[in-house]
């Protein structure tokens, strides 16, 4: 399931170099993942009913092109691979010229709500990777 989210770069997201601060890219990607969860109907309460929560454990990001105030960005999120207790979402961030500005592989682990330890990815989430 491929999900896209469009945003506009605000003045508060710019650093002293006149472009988006590197930490903001991580925030943009988080917004894209939340959009993916929402589109999939995997709201917090739904995951809780499945007995799990999800925790980001690794983000491998490549900064490709600077973004500036007023740029219209599209954050694309797609499922890449799934394991027994974890999965990877691939994310790409494009500007209004369809230029790739950043890409990332985000590893997420499912944990038991009560145990707080890694837990098998439930079928309701696993099916999104088929």
From TrEMBL:
Signal peptide coordinates: none
EC number from the UniProt entry: 3.1.2.-
Source domain of life: Bacteria
Pfam families per UniProt: 4HBT_2
Molecular-function GO term, any one: hydrolase activity
Enzyme superclass (EC): hydrolase
Gene3D superfamilies the record matches: Hotdog Thioesterase
Alphabetical list of PANTHER family matching this protein: 4-HYDROXYBENZOYL-COA THIOESTERASE FAMILY MEMBER (PTHR31793), NOVEL THIOESTERASE SUPERFAMILY DOMAIN AND SAPOSIN A-TYPE DOMAIN CONTAINING PROTEIN (0610012H03RIK) (PTHR31793:SF27)
Family classification: Belongs to the 4-hydroxybenzoyl-CoA thioesterase family.
UniProt-listed NCBIfam families: YbgC/FadM family acyl-CoA thioesterase
UniProt name for this protein: Long-chain acyl-CoA thioesterase FadM
Species classification: Bacteria, Bacillati, Bacillota, Bacilli, Bacillales
Name of the gene encoding the protein in the UniProt record: fadM_1
């Amino acid at each position: 399931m491929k999900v896209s989210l469009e945003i506009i770069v605000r003045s508060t997201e710019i650093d002293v170099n006149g472009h988006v601060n590197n930490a903001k890219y991580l925030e943009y990607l988080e917004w894209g993942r939340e959009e993916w969860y929402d589109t999939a109907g995997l709201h917090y309460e739904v995951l809780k009913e499945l007995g799990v929560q999800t925790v980001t454990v690794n983000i491998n990001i490549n900064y490709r092109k600077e973004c500036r105030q007023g740029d219209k960005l599209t954050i694309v999120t797609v499922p890449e691979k799934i394991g027994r207790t974890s999965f990877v979402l691939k994310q790409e961030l494009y500007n209004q010229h369809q230029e790739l500005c950043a890409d990332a592989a985000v590893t997420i682990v499912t944990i038991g709500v009560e145990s707080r330890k890694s837990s098998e990815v439930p079928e309701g989430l696993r099916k999104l990777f088929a």
